[in-house]
Amino acid sequence: MKNIWKNSVFLFICWLLTSCSSALRLNEFDLSNEYQASGLNYELNVSFQSINDSISSALVQIDANDLLFSKTNSGNYIARYSIGYKVFEDYSDKDALDTSKIYFSLTQKKNTQKKLHTINFFAPIGNNYVVKIYLVDENRSHKTSKVKTLRKKYRSDRSYFKIRALNKDVVNFTVYQKDSFSISPPENYENPIQVMIFPYKTTCAAMPYEVTHSLKLESIPDSTWFIYDSGDYKFPPLKNGYYHFITDTSKNEGFSVFSLNSSFPKISSIKNANGALGYLLEKTNYINLLSDNNPKRSFEKEWISLAGNQERARNLIRNYYSEVSNANKLFSSNQPGWSTDRGMIYIIYGVPKIVYRHQNSEVWIYGEENNLLSEEFEFKKIHSTISDEIYELKRNINFKISFSRMVKAWIDERGY
Q1: What is the CA radius of gyration of the chain?
Q2: 48, 56 in Cβ contact below 8 A?
Q3: Which of 167, 195, 289, 339 is the most exposed, having the fewest neighbouring CB atoms within 10 Å of its CB?
Q4: Residue 13 has pLDDT above 60, yes or no
């Protein structure tokens, strides 16, 4: 009996130690799958809505066409999938404040397209939260996840305001809108709301080795006004800019809604096409490109100069602007994704092999971890009410060699 007791205690201690050692903090998980643009890549759009001061909702939109439909004994084709969540107070947390997983099934139909799920979770007012949302295709055993910030410190935070597209055929509750949209403040909200319009940036980010560069957010809007009455507020789409709403002027709290053109994430203007070309050009050539009175002619001239001939130029253009589109989809906020620091590195270096996200930074690793031959980039998070997706690269003069090498490789290898 004594030996059985000793063995039981020993096994329990081993289990306890194993459980503790296997629990990872959120900032110890590799999040590079969020930046995959090719392969088995599922659409997963997430926004948050606070129902009250204790409960919030995750509005999770998926594309049913991504799912694998398997034939059943009855002859129907059924997709089986699950959506789960984990709510953390910080990226350094091991234990989730709330967690659950919900299972769904869907019968395949001719008009099976996007599905919206509303999932409630516990998140009391007074904090901002880090929420991991994941989709599992049970038929395929494939998992897709995203980690997002829920702002819920005050009732003037974004999650208390409802955003929706006015087009009844479009289901969109996110801060990224292509058409007219409305904003509904929380019930009995009496604060005046300041509305500001800011333009998007149309030039590339500073090179990773330009150490004197410092990111400066736009502070002077193109126009601004106040809303004093209660009710739904309607806004038209902007051609080249975004709305920023100050919902509490005493705390400077607020959020932004970003207008996207109909072709997003693809570039639709020659101005932006030339702007995005800066990463492959010498600074003098880039300045001349942007100042040319005939931007289309200048665009063609620079690409033929880079490629050597028209056929290679066509291939380079197709491959390059495909990466620009991916950067737009992943990193757009107060400026186009291609013009951000993360967008720049993504376009030139490709998808990072490893990504670690912390409360105040994000680390990208190209190559093996802890390998001196690998390239590592650290992006400092800029805490702003404009967006939770603004990051600034920690520039280093030593990046000049590898960046130049990657640009040369890009031009030499992608044109065939």
Answers
A1: 24
A2: yes
A3: 167
A4: no
